[in-house]
What we know:
Layout: E1 33-34, E2 37-38, H1 39-43, E3 45-48, H2 49-54, H3 76-93, E4 98-102, H4 103-106, H5 113-134, E5 137-142, H6 161-180, E6 185-189, E7 194-195, H7 203-223, E8 229-233, E9 242-243, H8 248-257, E10 264-269, H9 270-275, H10 280-289, E11 293-298, H11 316-328, E12 337-339, H12 350-377, H13 380-386, H14 394-400, H15 406-416, H16 426-436
Parallel strand pairs: 3-4, 3-12, 4-5, 5-6, 6-8, 8-10, 10-11, 11-12
Antiparallel strand pairs: 1-2, 7-9
Helix pairs in contact: 3-5, 5-6, 6-7, 10-11, 11-12
The site of D-xylose (XLS) has 9 residues, from loops.
Amino acid sequence: xxxxxxxxxxxxxxxxxxxxxxxxxxxxxxxxxxxxxxxxxxxxxxxxxxxxxxxxxxxxxxxxxxxxxxxxxxxxxxxxxxxxxxxxxxxxxxxxxxxxxxxxxxxxxxxxxxxxxxxxxxxxxxxxxxxxxxxxxxxxxxxxxxxxxxxxxxxxxxxxxxxxxxxxxxxxxxxxxxxxxxxxxxxxxxxxxxxxxxxxxxxxxxxxxxxxxxxxxxxxxxxxxxxxxxxxxxxxxxxxxxxxxxxxxxxxxxxxxxxxxxxxxxxxxxxxxxxxxxxxxxxxxxxxxxxxxxxxxxxxxxxxxxxxxxxxxxxxxxxxxxxxxxxxxxxxxxxxxxxxxxxxxxxxxxxxxxxxxxxxxxxxxxxxxxxxxxxxxxxxxxxxxxxxxxxxxxxxxxxxxxxxxxxxxxxxxxxxxxxxxxxxxxxxxxxxxxxxx
Length: 437
Ligand code: XLS
Ligand code: NI
Ligand code: NI
């Protein structure tokens, strides 16, 4: 394994919670068995290529602060190969089993469709070698249909068919790359699939185009042997004012309306949930209840800021609540935990990227252990089940089975009189989380 880009940093060991080594795992022990599976199998961590290897630290107020040692050549493919060497060294040292990319993260694109396809061919040849050498796999691929200026009015929802066709060309090549690299899944995040003003927008027509486009992509991938899932990643806004993939409920309704439920499920991002006015746990539960919990983009927002700050996760209480939902749902449907998170603009040491991932991985590992203990040892599950016991037999059961009329409810209400108060016990349940951390 090459050691050229992060030569001062070793393979990160698991040392347990009493270690003082900042470059060691305290909780993430990939081989440790939890509820019959290893931590590695439960968590399926992935590195997000765009933040970790393309994010420069630039913001609307200042130029890049993250200088990359692989930025030494002007040849796009050479540069891309060096960047990839660095990425695989990094992922190997962190024992990250998966990665995720947008097409343009792997290699810079021009405005020439055929040239872009060639570039992608070359860089995916290189990726295939690295995957073989390290055992690291592709969790999902996607096409960036939002950065290029041609997509300023949307990609598959653009009012100009000419732009939509370019989006199609790009998705075709990104699907080819995903299939070639044995990608487990393929993602659609609708960055500019939405609108800024209704004054210039035919929303109905745009959403129909989006559905048609998704069908074409799915049909093409299936025809070419792709067996994985397609994920839609909901987000309510940013960069568009209104995005069509607002939240999980919205996307589920859309998938049902356009007959896409068999092939698509959801990739849920923490900071997108909070932007939609939900907790992350809520979004996970909505997806799980519909059997559509595919994957997650792990990060966290900032409760004082109203945008996608994409910070690394570190809130054990919230992550434990999330892991409770995931464990009870039986895990991810083909996906994993992709760190769609970036180090801060002023985090400029090479080790910062390692520490960020160590923190995220340890936080999830600790949350997994805590959630599993709560499920196995505490009264949490029984309490939740008992709360609905009145529907398990008698008239409650008849109601659930559809055997009561509205008149029957009235008769029951009169017969039983006023119900007594039953506490929801929220504070006690919150204390249980604290107890098991
Ligand atoms: C942006 C999204 C994006 C997707 C992939 O907010 O999170 O990074 O995950 O296109
Ligand atoms: Ni994301
Ligand atoms: Ni995001």
